[in-house]
Amino acid sequence: MDFFTYIINYIMIIKMTKIYPTSVIEKADEIIEILKEEGFFEYNEIDNFDFASKHIKDKLTEKFILGTLDDEEEIFTEKEFETLLKEIIAGTVLEELKSKGLVGSYEDEDTEEMFFLTPKGKKYLKNID
After folding, report:
1. Strand stretches in 2-123, DSSP E
2. pLDDT classification of 109: cutoffs 50, 70, 90
């Protein structure tokens, strides 16, 4: 393996593996537990919390970097939290569709994940009509 290939592989591994600060993990776990207790996941028929956990940790990491995570006041504004919950629902559905092979995704030039129907998804959609 040449040096260039080694560097590319190393970057890909680092990109796929995120290490979160302890305070972020603790607060994310606390939020997940509260959402479970309040019935958010059950009401929205979410059985797998992987996306929710990762997404909450990513949002908390943004707050951590800005230095606002440890503020005594609320972590999220009402609008931010409402948006977070909507993103959890949408993201969980997309991940489920992706795991079933109905949608695929790629990262665009802005490293934003873009979704598209796979041939299996198109066939399924035609059968629904």
Report:
1. 103-107, 113-117
2. confident
